[in-house]
Design a protein that fits this description.
Blueprint (H helix, E strand, L loop, with lengths): L1 H8 L1 H9 L5 H7 L9 H5 L2 H13 L6 E4 L5 E2 L2 E2 L21 E4 L1 H5 L43 H18 L2
Antiparallel strand pairs: 1-4, 2-3
Helix pairs in contact: 1-5, 2-3, 5-7
The structure holds protoporphyrin IX containing FE (HEM).
The site of protoporphyrin IX containing FE has 15 residues, from helix 7.
Protein name: Cytochrome P450
Cofactor: heme
GO biological process, one term: sterol metabolic process
């Protein structure tokens, strides 16, 4: 739903994903086959613009609030204490006291809209829908919408397959 909303609001992205003269992503696929032929793996893999549109949609419209991790060792994150025996308030002025807590919530929503420019390559104008920012950034360590590490979401490719298939038929059969 959100991919359709963003494509509607960004006609240039819609034009590129549907029929760009250089890429001809979705219309090129149907040009070489009859309507009843299913999409094969190579055709799915050729949908590179669709893929980055889906990533940018997930970045701005993620439903994931955060992922939880538990520290196994004493450690410090940006000067904040996150250790088993820690008795310091995690942030001055907050009423919460994190004593004996070793749970860390990684706020994925905020990381994906980070405006502090820790990494200016990825988050230039982070509130703008710009699918091109994901070109070659898929393996970037800030790619957090599916979590990370050993608990990385195993459904991540399935999501992209399903939304790509929906967008393919939606964009080639309707205007
Ligand atoms: C847009 C859709 C989805 C998003 C944004 C998403 C996101 C996430 C995130 C952030 C995590 C936590 C990873 C972590 O703790 O590091 C997760 C875990 C998981 N996801 Fe997804 N997910 C999606 C769809 C799916 C689908 C379609 C499936 C299955 C068919 C799935 C199965 C799982 C499972 C089993 C885990 C737990 C993995 C573990 O703890 O080892 N997810 N997902």
């Amino acid at each position: 739903m959100m991919a359709v909303k963003y494509l509607h609001a960004h006609p240039k992205a819609l034009q590129e994903i549907r029929v760009c003269h250089r890429h001809e992503e979705h219309l090129a696929i149907i040009n070489f086959k009859s309507p009843e032929d299913p999409i094969d793996r190579n055709e799915y893999k050729s949908m590179s613009l669709t893929r980055v549109v889906i990533y940018e949609t997930l970045r701005l419209a993620t439903v994931v609030n955060g992922v939880l991790r538990r520290t196994t060792d004493d450690m410090e994150i940006n000067g904040i204490c996150a250790q088993n025996s820690c008795t310091t308030d995690i942030s001055p002025g907050q009423k919460y006291h994190y004593s004996h807590s070793n749970d860390v919530l990684i706020n994925v929503y905020v990381v994906l809209r980070d405006q502090t420019n820790y990494d200016p390559i990825q988050y230039m104008e982070p509130l703008n829908f710009d699918s091109w920012r994901w070109k070659s950034l898929e393996s970037h360590h800030y790619f957090t919408m599916f979590g990370g590490g050993s608990s990385l979401c195993p459904g991540n490719e399935l999501v992209v397959v399903q939304v790509s298939m929906f967008l393919h038929y939606f964009l080639t059969k309707y205007r």
